[in-house]
Design a protein that fits this description.
Elements: H1 2-10, E1 18-19, H2 20-26, H3 32-41, E2 44-49, E3 54-59
Antiparallel strand pairs: 1-3, 2-3
C-alpha cells in the first residue's frame, strides 16, 4: 500500500519531483532507509539539488530529461 501511495503522489500532473521530506510527511511512520526502499520499489529515483531543497524524488518515466 505504501508503494501505491508513493506512485499516486509521484504521478500527480503538477509535480514531477517531490522532496524526500514531503514523502516522509505524507507517509507517517515510515522513516529514512525504509522510505528510500519503498521509493525505489515504486519506481522513483533520487535527485539532489543545491538550492536548499535537498533530496528530491521522482519517477524514472516522468523525468527522462533529468537522467
Amino acid at each position: 500500500m505504501a508503494e501505491e501511495a508513493i506512485r499516486l503522489l509521484s504521478e500527480h500532473e503538477q509535480w514531477h519531483l517531490r522532496s524526500f521530506d514531503e514523502f516522509r510527511r505524507r507517509l507517517r511512520g515510515v522513516e529514512g532507509d525504509e522510505l528510500r526502499h519503498l521509493l525505489v520499489g515504486a519506481g522513483a529515483i533520487s535527485f539532489e539539488y543545491t538550492k536548499g531543497d535537498g533530496e528530491m524524488q521522482g519517477l524514472r518515466e516522468r523525468n527522462p530529461d533529468r537522467l
